[in-house]
Amino acid sequence: MTSRWLHPGAWWLWSLCLAAAASQTTNPLLLALLICAAVIVVAARKPDAPWGKSFEFFLFLGAMIITIRVVFQIVFGAGLGTTVLFELPGVSFPDWMSGLRLGGSVTLEAILGAFYDGLRLATIAIVIGAANSLASPTRLLKAVPTALYELGVSIVVALTFIPQLTTDAGRIREMRRLRGRNSKGLKGFVSLGLPVLAGALDRSIILAESMDSRGYGRHQKETTLGRRVSISLVLTSLSLALIGVYSLLTAGTSALVAILIVSIGLILGGVTLWRAGRTRVRTVYRPDTWALPEWLVSIAGVAVLGVFLVARISPDQALILRPELNTWPSLPLWGLLAFGIACTPALSAPPPPAFDIDTNEPVGAEALT
Amino acid sequence: MRAVTLGKPSAIAIAAITVIGVISFLWPFVAPADSFLVMNSTETPLLFALIIPLLLVTVISQISDGGLDAKTIALLGALAAVIAVLRPLGAGLGGIEPIWVILILAGRAMGPGFGFLLGSISLLASAMFTGGVGPWLPFQMLAAAWVGLGAGLLPKASGKRELVILSAYAAVACVAFGFIMNLWFWPFSLNLPEQIAFTPGASAGENLLAWIRFSLTTSLGFDLPRAALTVILIALVGSPILKLLRRASRKAAFDAPTVFIETQRIS
Amino acid sequence: MISIQHVTFRYAEESQPVLRDLNLEIPAGELALLLGATGSGKTTFLRAINGLVPHFTGGHFTGRVSVNGRSTQVNQPRELADLVGFVAQDPVSGFVTDLVEDELAYSMECLGIDPPVMRRRVEEILDLLGLTELRNRPLHTLSGGQQQRVAIGSVLTAQPKVLVLDEPTSALDPGAAEEVLAALHRLVHDLGITVVLAEHRLERVMQYCDSILLLENGSIRSGTPSELMQTSSIAPPVIHLGRLAGWDPLPISIRDARRAAPPLRALLANHSPRVQAVPTQSPRIVEIKEVHCSYGKRTVLRGVDLVLDAGEITALMGRNGAGKSTLLRTLVGLKNQSKGTIQVNGVDPHTLAAKDLLRHVGFVPQEPHDLFESLTVAAECKSSDTDAGCPPGTTRALLALMAPDVQDGTHPRDLSEGQQMLLALALIVAAKPPLLLLDEPTRGLDYPTKKKLGEVLRGLANAGHTVLMATHDVELVAELATRVVIMGDGEIVANGPTQSVITDSPMFAPQVSKVLAPDRWITVEQIAYVLNQELA
Questions:
Q1: Touching subunits for chain A (3+ Cβ pairs under 8 A)
Q2: Which residues, numbered 158 to 217 in chain B, qualify as contacts with chain C under a Cβ-Cβ cut-off of 8 Å?
Q3: Which of A15, A208, A316, C347 is most buried per CB count within 10 Å?
Q4: In angstroms, rounded to a whole number, what is the distance separating the alpha carbons of residues A1 and A350?
């Protein structure tokens, strides 16, 4: 298969579907399978670029989430369940806190409960992290609809400024040393930060000049009627969303109707965006195509979500999705099937283009000699 | 002419999403036990996590419909980058991020519309940079947008008085941000003792009390230091940062008029 | 092509107009060079061509600027983007994307050009500017010359008829500057693009241009180079030489000057050039022995030996990548050597704590504003007094001597390049370090400021400091330096008195030397001295 970038939308769709699937269950075995699928796909299709290296961070983040949940539970555990593991010294809060107790006996059930819950959140984080590592942020911003073009540009600007800020900070720290100042402690950090901020602000004006000179921001003139239509669309969509959400808030109205109203509001919002996109003059150079591999990856994600939703609806799978805390969780056959489907992008997505390794050498090497 | 002009439609749009946002945060207190939100309390945050970004995007599209010019975009990007770079430094300071001072001062110097946009964009950019993309992101974006918006709406003042007003706002905003972000996951935190747990169907007052106790025992450890750090930073560098931001605003000539003077001469 | 009629412009915050009643026509296909002292309004004039002035900057604008019939009053800069391409002084800050190919395509994306057309144009520009192997490279990995060419390419893809450049070669070494100027020359000759460029380093550019626009006191005089250079105060050495020798017609390029030179050579035949007196018996300040330095696996300095005495002004020259900056960094303790010893004033700079460092060595970086932290000039000077431990007011007094027109309340970053350089120098010199290091001090400086800087440095050298500057500016070296050290590939390739070293090397020879080769004359002053003697 020729190497090319997969459309970032496909990666994100796959990842969001897996995240939604993970949110349906607390079964640690199913969640572990989803995490493994993410790891496998990332290992197979990770590009050799700076953002590709962020996946380890997400795994670490997942571990942190689980640890924090468990520690929380140990400290605040209200003695759920029966199997006591160990005792912590208990601390009672005074009466105005309604006699809250910290510590006390720590039970297996409580820890397991926290672990399952943390694992679910961790899986969501890891699976979304996979999309972060697989899809280039700048190409994702290219794929952003034209209506949000300005938003996208400001984020591209932010992402390109970030490495410059760190090199600036390094250089200015050296210069401060030459003036006899060190940059330690809060005062030092702040004295370092001000020139970096000043440089960034100055540079942004130069950038704006360059963008303006190159034609940024060309609009077709909108007619007054068109403008009025846009504004009413926006306000209508927001009002509908507001009404729908408020209905969900109160008992009595049918939930289905409320969700319908919200959806119509969202669709109108989408129409506004589409209309706004048409007034902006803009084309995309070498846009990412949506071809067979993109379909395969997206459908894999949707299929996995579908399997989980079907399980959610069938009554006999309830215990599988939310296992009891005092029995071993079981692994159903459809879980393995879902795992297999979730892993297919490792093969169906094209390998990413190889990076010229030399070109990722830090700029310092060139400028320092 | 401010950096980001907010016309009536934009202001209404911001108000609307603020109300929806408030509902998305406060539903545990006011939703009766048999409403859809409470009955599916584990899914509700995810439902809002889906609705809010779509609506936020619509609102932002409305705000930028006047045409965000290159200067505003470039300044937004530069400040969002500064915020994104400062955020991981929070790890070195024990988890307290020094980003609020920039957001609040930028909202003050450049106006509420700019502050709103900067809040959402900077949190999105920093999430893309550090990888903090998760279901909590839309809520963080909205809450930070409010912080930036609020800073721009503070009353006129200058000199020391300005710093005092900003410090007071910062303290309130930082603690409020922490408390409100707790609302994101608190209702469906399982297995909490009753005094600090969300009880569907209990009265608003009881749930409110439970939430306050929960926040006091957990995140206050983060919120107070965050507020303290921001206030200290405002005291230390608030004045130079404001001067730098206003200088940038001047150089960008947001307020300078472009005047074409007709002459009688014909050449 | 460009028509400027009765244009007067004043910035909103200022009371005096920058441009006064300009009237000018620049025909199509011409390469026009804009000359003027710092602060004369060159930047404003260039930006008036594509409408940045007044739409981007605000201000009061009278008159009419039209390019190919389209007026800047009615059109915003973005609407003129397909007609006028503007390349600012700092192209790196103007990059919107992070890959070369994306940057080239950006302008076309903004203009809404069809993707197949975009593809074709990108390929053409890559070929035209020699960027094909670089197409997938991240922008921050390119050299200065490559970045400048990408910046030019990124505005060329819109197929403009006019190209406006603000000091395109100021940050480049002579080789990279040659590449960029040759590319511009090709654009004018092959594609017929009208080019207007502002440049301080006239010696590089003069021979390419068709006309000169001299901006003085807000008004412009235009004419061919030979006309204007008769009387212009801003002129490269070859012009000064021609005027001094009374050559008619005034030769603009070195080749023409060489043809007119024989009578002058005959006149000078029995004289030898007056050389700056090199102080003898002065204390040795710097001793570098056998220093090796590497970054990871790459060896950057190989066995460098160097001694510097008080009163010397030493120029460190060489291609980018030869090791100049690394050598400077080892002297300030920012880089550790892997082998060899360095002694500055008797101590190794690495062993010094930060607050003692500035008493031994002072360093002015390429970007002087990296040193600035305060919000006003006065505050900056005060903090420097504290750091240096000298009586309050010392630094401000030093600055007043060097740059009398700098005001207390200005933000340091708002000063002109020359003023920033002199402020940085004042901050460093306050602590009286015996060794002074400067990295590319004359970037962006006009001739008068360079002269001022030269005077300041010579004064410091006479007072007992030793100055080491890394520079590409051959003319400055010829006038100022007592000794020249040339580095190549991490080693010192030449080390000796200025007079002999720079006349030996064709790459680093000043204009006067190139004209009068093989006779060894390096500055116009030397020749003027002889001619005065002849008259007397």
A1: B, C
A2: none
A3: A15
A4: 6
Residues of chain C with pLDDT under 70: none
Annotate C39-88 with DSSP letters as a single string. TSSHHHHHHHHHTHHHHTT-EEEEEEEEETTEETTTS-GGGGTTTEEEE-
Residue B3 within a domain: no
Let me know: does B28 contact B198? Beta carbons within 8 Å: yes
**Nearest by CB: B125 against A99, A159, A202:** A159
Residue A118's pLDDT is what? 85
- B256 in a structural domain: no
Q: Is A195 in contact with C59 (CB distance < 8 Å)?
A: no
Nearest residue to C152 via CA among C136, C123, C131 = C131
HSE-CB for B256 with a 13 A CA cutoff: 23
ipTM of the complex: 0.90
**Residue B266 located in a structural domain:** no
**CA gap A68, B175 in Å, rounded:** 21
* For chain A, percent of residues with pLDDT exceeding 70: 86
Cα A180 to its chain centre, rounded Å, is 43
Residue C366 and residue C440: Cα distance in Å, rounded? Answer: 6
Q: Which residues contact C315 (CB under 8 A, 6 or more apart)?
A: C469, C470, C471, C476, C477, C480, C481, C483, C484, C485, C498
C49 burial class (0-12, 13-18, 19+ CB within 10 angstroms)?
Answer: buried
- Give helix A8-22 / helix A292-313 axis angle, nearest 10°: 10
Six-digit token string for A213: 């000179």
Please report residues of C whose CB lies closer than 8 A to that of B256: 11-13, 57-59
Kindly state the DSSP code that residue C347 receives in the 8-state scheme. Answer: B
Most confident of A170-184, A267-281, A352-366: A170-184
Higher pLDDT, A29 or A4: A29
> C384, C344 in Cβ contact below 8 A?
no
Query: Residue A332, SS3?
Result: coil
Superfamily of segment(s) C2-235: P-loop containing nucleotide triphosphate hydrolases (3.40.50.300)
Q: How many alpha carbons lie under 13 Å from residue B135 in its C-beta half-sphere?
A: 27
Rounded average pLDDT over B239-265:
80
| Separation CA A185–CA C441 (nearest Å) | 33
Identify the helix (H) or strand (E) that includes residue A280: none
DSSP state of A145: -
Element (DSSP H or E) covering residue B92: helix B70-92
Q: Give residue-wise pLDDT tens across range C364-421.
A: 998 899 999 999 999 999 999 988 888 999 899 999 988 888 889 899 998 988 899 9
Report the residue from C5, C60, C375 with minimal CB separation from B259: C60
Q: Is C488 helix (H, G, I), strand (E, B) or coil?
A: strand
Is it true that domain C284-504 has CATH number 3.40.50.300? yes
Q: Any idea what the CATH number is for the domain that residue B98 is in?
A: 1.10.1760.20
